[in-house]
Every structure is written in structure tokens, then in C-alpha cells.
Amino acid sequence: MASVASVQQLLTPAFTVDIQKVENNAKRMIERCQALGVRLRPHMKTHKTVECADIMTGGSRRCIVVSTLAEARFYTDHGFDDILYAYPLPFDKVDICADLAERLEMFHVLIDNELALAELKKRRLKDGKAWLVWQKINCNNGRVGVRPEDPAAMILAKSIAECEGVELAGVYAHCGNSYHATGLEEIQAVAQETTTATLDFVQKYEHFSFKII
After folding, report:
1. Helix (H, G, I), strand (E, B), or coil: what is residue 81?
2. Residue pair 187/178 in contact by the 8 Å Cβ criterion
């Protein structure tokens, strides 16, 4: 039987995880989302492990977010599906995205401009599959995405919804401006601002098939 070292005996730097806390937190989040009637799509970019991904998805291995195509391939190879690549579509990696979209039941890409949509139109998926596309909106976080109040956002949403071989799967916002918050109230204010902006944007397109996943 292998001996178990105490934390004090570990060589530093060392990364330690209280697995019980991880499991408890994940369970609470899953149950919270279920109670609200929404689907949880946890992000894998911090831990990048199968073990933690299993915990965060409740063992379903479905409905996750990744930041890189290496992560997408890793989780695909380990039996995960319904994967959102939450980074604006790199034009030189469309073929890699297409391969994943054709391998998986559901692989989602993120775009925030018409040029990216044009790249998807050039690369049709096999067997009549449609690209699952999320529109990235910028809710005051100073990163990528189109401002929801910008007329260009409406034009892009219409273009995606009307494009053959492409399905508008949802909109994606990131609260990156919360990183500089100094307390709970500021964090909650950013969350509320982002939620309001996102819902207002979606409501403008009620006649389109928005499916927030």
C-alpha cells in the first residue's frame, strides 16, 4: 500500500485539490441550474482534466466549454460531446473545427463578424450537418465581440440565421470586466449588467430561432 504524504511534506511548488469541496461545489451548481431550468455548460480551461470534467458534468460528459482546439480534441478523444469552442473562429483553423463538427454530435463555434461567417460558408460540413454557431457579444468587457446595441449585431444575427448550412445556436457573453471587481456587490453588478444586455439582445430577435444552450 502506498504511503500518503502530508501537505507539509510536499515539495513546492505543488498543486493540491480538496476533491470533496470540488464535488460539493459542482453538485451545488448543477442543482442550482436545474432548479432554474437552465443548462449548465462548465468551462474546462483551468483544470484541463477528465476527472474534474466528469465531476463538473455530473458524469454525463456532455455540454462543456473549452478555450483551445487542443482542449476540444482532448475531450473529444475521451468521449465528451456537445463542446463549445469559446474563442472567435480562427480562419486558419476552420478545417480543424470542421473535423470536430463532423466527428461529434454537437460542436459549436463562436463568431463575431461577417468574415468569419463567410469562412464557414466556404467549408460545408459532410452529411448535411449544419455549423452550430454562437454569436459573441461584448457586454462592456473590453474584449472581442460585437456590442449588442451596435446595428452590426442585428445584421450579423440575421446573416447567421439566414445562412444555409449554418444554425444560430445562441449568444455568448463573457464577464471579463468582473476580474477587477473589489467585492461581491461589484461582481453582482457586472453579472446583472451582462445578463440584462444579453437578454435585451435576444429579445430583439424573437422572430429568429435563438436557442440559448
Report:
1. strand
2. yes
The whole domain housing 123 covers 89-213
* Non-local CB neighbours of 143 within 8 Å, separated by 6+ positions: 174, 176
Query: Does the predicted model carry a pTM greater than 0.70?
Result: yes
| Secondary structure of residue 39 in the 3-state scheme | coil
Q: Is residue 12 part of a domain?
A: no
Residue ranges in the chain whose pLDDT is less than 50: 1, 210-213
Pairing of strands 131-136, 107-111: parallel
Strands (E) in the chain, as ranges, are 62-66, 81-88, 107-111, 131-136, 166-172
Number of domains in the chain: 1
How far from 66 is each of 132, 186, 196, CA to CA, in Å? 15, 26, 25
Report CA-CA distances (Å) from 85 to 124, 135, 208: 18, 12, 23
What's the confidence (pLDDT) of residue 213? Answer: 43
Give me the CATH number covering residue 153. Answer: 3.20.20.10
How far apart CA 87 and CA 63 sit, in angstroms, is 16
10, part of any domain: no
